[in-house]
Amino acid sequence: MTNGWADIKNTDMMLIMGGNPAENHPCGFKWAIEAKRNRNAKMIVVDPRFTRTAATADLFAQIRVGSDIAFLGGVIRYAIENNRIAHDYLVNYTNAAFIIKDGFKLPEDGLYSGFDSEKKTYDKSTWNYEEGGDLTGKPVAPTPPNQNAQPQYAGQQREAKGYQGASSAEAKAGAVPAPSLPPNIAYDLSLQHPRCVFQLLKRQYSRYTPEMVERITGIPKDQFLKAADLFTSIRKDGDTKKVATILYAVGWTQHSYGTQMIRTAAMLQLLLGNVGRAGGGVNALRGHANIQGATDMGGIFDIWPGYLKVPNPNDVDLKTYLERVTPKASKPSPWDSFNYWSNTPKFAVSYLKAMFGDAATKENDWAFHYAPKIDRNYSWTQIWDNMYRGTVKGMFAFGMNGVAIGPNSQKNIEALKKADWLVVGEIYPDETSEFWRAPGTTAEEMKAINTTVYRLPCAGFAEKDGSMTNSARWLQWKNIALPTPGDARLDQDIVAQIFLKVRELYQKEGGAFPDPILKLTWPYTEPKHPALSELAKEFNGKALADLIDPKTQQVIKRGQQLPGFAWLKDDGTTSCGNWIYSGCWTEAGPQLMRRGTEDPSGMGVYQNWAWAWPANRRVLYNRASCDPSGKPWDADRRQVWWNEATQTWVGNDVPDFKPDSAPKDHMGPFIMNPDGVGRIFAPLAAFADGPFPEHYEPTESPVVNALHPNQSNSPVVKRLTSTADKYGTVSEGFNIICTTYRLTEHYHYWTKNNPVNVQLIPEPFVEMPVELAQELGIKGGDTVKVTSARSFYVAKAFVTKRIRPMNIDGKKVYQIGLPIHQGYRGIQEDADRNARTLANRLSPAVTDPNAYTPEFKGFLVKLEKV
Amino acid sequence: MSQATLAIRRISGHAGPAPGAGVERAEQVCKLVDTTTCIGCKACEVACLEWNGYAFSQTTFNNSYQTMPTTSWNYWNLIKFNEHEREDGALMLLMRKDQCMHCAEPGCLAACPADGAIVQYTNGIVDFQQQNCIGCGYCVSGCPFDIPKFNSNTKKMFKCTLCSDRVSEGLEPACIKSCPTGCLHFGTKDDMTFLAEKRAQQLRENFGMEKAGVYDPQGVGGTGVIYVLHDVSNPEAYGGLPKDPYIPWVVQFWKGPAKWIGNLAMLGGIIGVTLHYLRFGPKQVNGWKHKEGGKP
Q1: Which CATH entry fits the domain spanning A730-865: 3.40.830.10, 2.40.40.20, 3.40.190.10, 3.40.50.460?
Q2: For residue A54, which residues of chain B lie inside 8 Å, CB to CB?
Q3: Please, what is the angle between helix A210-217 and helix A221-232, to 10°?
Q4: Residue A584 in contact with residue A540, Cβ under 8 Å?
Q5: How many angstroms separate the CA of residue A490 from the nearest CA in chain B?
Q6: A6-90+212-292 maps to which CATH number?
Q7: What's the gap between Cα A610 and its chain centre?
Q8: Is this prediction's ipTM beyond 0.95?
Q9: pLDDT tens across B4-36, in order?
Q10: What is the CA radius of gyration of chain B?
Q11: Is the full-model pTM beyond 0.90?
């Protein structure tokens, strides 16, 4: 979340899309209700189903699964057409005024400039700012930006032969240096230049008319217009006080263009000036108590803790790596840019010191070579694909149920059958640890499975202490409520003991490259039982030598905990396991254990409750809550402001800004971007699939793309091609859209072991429109079979008015939905009262090219009565 | 379920003044359920189950998120889900927390013949005292909301206590505590009525719900559970909430005029028997032979 849960109460308008907070985040949803109750805030819900969130909404629109970019693009168009935009915000805080290189082409035929049809990747060199100065009011060449784009591009294509872009997956190329942002960006503050971002944006979404939105999304034009009018009404008649928020969850993430859906939301919020403001922002509602923590701590293959990029084999030394990953400021010359990622070397060296301690020295590049380099995609679906193909031989599965998660669960089951070993740390026997008894496995087949399964009883959440990071980026400490039962052990103890054993073997036997294992720091009081408090202190970081702040003369003694990441150094005098968590456990004590409920501003800031990264800031980019002169846009919702007397930024929240940068310096509020501004246009390699989002169809779709029928899907989405990865089409009879979701009554695949949850929702079901059920002769409670190109799923029919048939571009289309919670182990399953198939047997292993998240949310199926 | 700390206003099946009545003055307590902010999360169901110590029971899917048709003797709090199409065609998913309404004029209490099996405390809570319950089920016929439920093992009736055990200790009912959205409120009847009317007014004025209003039916003297409804003119849409509930005539007649007619009849009978005895003396048995040990 850019903002936080409690902050939602400050909003005037909510757009909830790609999420169902009433059901999946009921405790956080209280703040949405607070906004309605106390501010008369309005709520728009756009979803394929009329959910329990929709039940409390002021406006609901049923959308076709996966067509969200078309809807949001339509709202962008509506906002521009009706002048419901935040003009000053747009000009000063976003890249709307920046000029884009000649040769950049909008995807009016479905492709941006630079597409390499062989490699299915983009050469992104035209997706860049033009160099130059102030072009405001200057005459421009009469040719519109894209007319001559194609021939130019063709020329560039020849020149750029061999260049493969800068994304990690393509890192092998190396030889040609990646293009970079110009230091001195050309701009037109009048926003009139035909190649300025604003004009390109206008042109890009000019195709997303209400009629086109209806054709793609199935939302009738008048209903779409009502929604667009209501959402943008906060900027009616030049109002700059009101604020709108967008709340989303994995209903956006889990598409083959999920990142771009979220991008569109971010662009809309920038256009309306809602980012950085109380009650505004783009807010990801995380589905697990600590999934934010998992990403923060580098739980993804291509990032280190704190969102540092993982090195690749071309990073021959630390210098090369740091040069590649440390951005240089790029801005209009009269403006200033903090470019906070310019501190990357301090974060990276401090991280290496935390990992390898005294073994990390200046002479050995701070042990940079001990850190693994990624040479290819190691994302979730790829791991399973590799196991299915026999190259991954074993797996540790802790805190997750990989078979049930899917996608394409049957493939994961088949993959495990081919593995040599599997270690599962769990609190219940689950589908993964018992993959060998998945339904459909014959006794003969079972005999042929040679995978050795080690099942380790782990501790449940109430049996562990430690911090969890919530959607609002709050690190909150919890204590142990219960002792672990029986032989169950803490997860960290198991991992520690395995590591120590491996290290012992390396000590005894040597090995190809023992140093990273032998020299890893393991400074915990009880090496076999590392305390999570010690780990939290390690993340926070400490001084390895006496440090002195030249401005304030403040001294941090050697060995002391650091007050925050501003103290980090790239000379080996600090260590820090995760720079964004620096400040969570200081010399003043564990900040993440704080329980202060005072809230002087009344805006739900709660500065003394737990600790929020970064630097205990509650709303990110909060400099943008003020106008360029440093005054809050809304005097009633004051977050931070410029204090002329002290010449500093002060406020109710921690300013997310250089504290002494005066408004006249025109420093951009988006300090993590090298350009300092919110990016309506995402230049260069920020995204693999385009600098502006474009509507593409899901990999499996019942219709062709109404915008460009010859380029229906995103051209850079790659499909896995193993024998288990099949994709269905309408002509093969897969003519119903299916989406997956979660219910408020259950928590993933876990609570099917808990009697009360089972009582609340005892059985798996499939929600379907009344009309579809009638066509197929299905009554509520009948057993039905849902079949995709990959596998089938059996459950009971839930015939409901809450999903209605849709008219997509003149074609009648049905959507159905199924909760994912049941499987083949659980109270009902074990008693043989439930169908025992997994919902994710149906979903395809096709992923977003940026985040590698699978497309769980929209695919094609057949439906029949059993 | 007896709560010594709560003063009793009346008790069922008990002649004469209620023991301790009027000794202590207590505020009327009230639950406010704002159906417009209910998200059907069922936290109140689970809180009720857990606070009262009832265990898991087997349910089946029945084409709804609601997996039990009604409340039961060991399940006192149930969200009723209803898909409702408005006149303009718009769909609504109505979710209403169903439980004992704690009527000011409780039909169950009126109908109950067992001495002290149903009590109404001065704070308005209507509570069943299972130790006095004879399991006759007459309370069911007295209730316009279908609330009292029979446990066939113990032969006793059960229902929501409005957490009289918690309330008497100054706590809110368990369901209220668990509600994540603040759809449930608890306080004095006056405060809840004020809050409910204010909310209904807000819905009418700012959210286009012209028919929003407060459900506090006067046919049972008002209730200790009041609802804010999107459309107060159609409470039936919320899973059969009666539009104008009243205590059935048969119960009213039985416990009202019928009781006195019965009493009079009984008194008349006794007088008649006495007069008959005085006038005619004991009845003589003639020509009847007693058969010892034999079957008639």
Answers
A1: 2.40.40.20
A2: 93
A3: 110
A4: yes
A5: 28
A6: 3.40.228.10
A7: 23
A8: no
A9: 456 677 778 767 766 555 554 568 999 999 999
A10: 24
A11: yes
